[in-house]
Amino acid sequence: MSGLMGSPDKFLPSEWKHANNVHFRSSEAQRSLSQRLTAECQRLIEESDKSTKHTQQDAQKKLEQRIQDIKFWRQELDQKFEEMVQEIETLIIFKSRVERALESCSEPFQVTLQCLTERQKRVAIDLVHDEVEEELLKEKEVIEGVMVLLQRTLEQINEQIRLIRSVKYYLEKDLQDKFQAEHIDDFCALLTNASTNLNRGNSDFSSAGTAVTPEEWESLCISNISKAEKEKNNSLSLRALVDSLLEQTAADMRRQYEATGRAFELRIEETKSAKTQLENQLNELLGEIANQEKNLESLCVAVVEKETPLKVAQTRLSSRGQRPNVELCHDPAQIRLLEEVKELTNHIGRLTEALKLSEMEVKALARRQLSLEEEIQVKTNSLYIDEVTCHQLRQPVVIHNF
Known about the structure:
Number of domains: 2
CATH architecture of the largest domain: Up-down Bundle
Family: Belongs to the tektin family.
Number of strands: 0
GO cellular component, one term: nucleus
Function: Microtubule inner protein (MIP) part of the dynein-decorated doublet microtubules (DMTs) in cilia and flagellar axoneme. Forms filamentous polymers in the walls of ciliary and flagellar microtubules.
Largest sheet: none
Structural class: mainly alpha
CATH class of the largest domain: Mainly Alpha
Distance between the termini: 136 Å
Subunit structure: Microtubule inner protein component of sperm flagellar doublet microtubules.
Number of helices: 5
Helix content: over 70%
Strand content: under 5%
Subcellular location: Cytoplasm, Cytoskeleton, Cilium axoneme; Cytoplasm, Cytoskeleton, Flagellum axoneme
Order of helices and strands: HHHHH
C-alpha cells in the first residue's frame, strides 16, 4: 500500500516560480478584466441614467406641450361651443318672433275676409267693384304673401337650428374627448419615479396612439371650428334677413291696411254725399208732389166751376128754343149763348185733359219718390256695412312691428 501511495514528485524551484507567476498573471488579468467590466458597467449606468433622465424629461416636455395643445384647442372649441349655444338661444328667440308674427297675421286676415263677405251684402247698384274692394283684395293678397313668407322663414330658422345643434353635438363630443385626454395626460405628467401607482405589467404599447396622426387630430379640430364658424355666419345672415323681413312685412301690411282705411273713408264720404243728394232730391220731389196735388185739386175745382155756367148756358139755349114762330130768332143773344157753350165746353175739355196729365204726373212723381226712397235705403245699407260693420271689425286691428 505504501508502495502504491508513493511520495509525490517534487517540482523544481523554477517550476514553482513559474506556477506562481502564472497564478499572478491570471489573477491580474481576471482582475483587470473585472475592473474594465466594472468601469464599462459604471459608464453604462451613467449613460443609461443620463439617457433615461433626458428621455423622461423630453417625454415630460412632450406631455406638457401636448397638454398645452389640448388646452388651446379645448379653449377654442369651448368658445365655439358657447357661441353655438348662444346662437341657438338667439335663433329660438327669432323663431318665437316669427311665430308671433305669423299668429298676428291671423286676425287682420280674418277681418279682411269678413269685410269682403259683409260688402257682398250691398244691394242694387251699390254692389260695385269699387276702390274699397280692390284695396281689400290687395290687403288679402299682401297678408297671404306675408304668411307664406313667414312660414318659409320659420322653416329656414328651424333648419338652421338643426344644423347648429348638429355642429354643437360634434363640438361637445370633441370637447368631452379632449377633456378626458387632458385629464389622462395631466395624470401622466404628474407621475414620477417615486409614484406608487405605476403600471408594473409588461403590456405591449407598440400600437398605442397610432390611430390618428397629430396633423389629422389638429385638422379635425380645425374642421369642427370651421363648421361652427360657417354655421354661425349663416345664422348671422339669416338673423339679419329675418330682422329685415319682419320689419318690411309689418310695414307692407300697415301700409296696405292704411290704404284700405283711406279707401273706406273716401267711399263712405262719397256714399254719404250721394245719399244727401238723393235726400235733397226726395225733399224737392215731395214738394213738387204737394204742388202737383194742389194743381190737381185746382183743376178739379176749375172743372166743377165751369160745369155750372155750361149748364146755365145750355138751359138758356134749351129754353130759348121754345120761343114761338118768328121769335125763334137767331139773335145776338142766341149767337152769344152758342159761343158761350162752345167756349165752356172747350174750357172743360182742356181742363179735363190737364187734369189727366196732372194725375199722370202725380203718379210719375210717386214712382220717382219710391225709386229715390229705395235708392236712399240702398245707400243707408251700404253706409251701415262700410261705416258701422266694417269699421267695428277693423277698429281693433293694430299692425305692430313684428
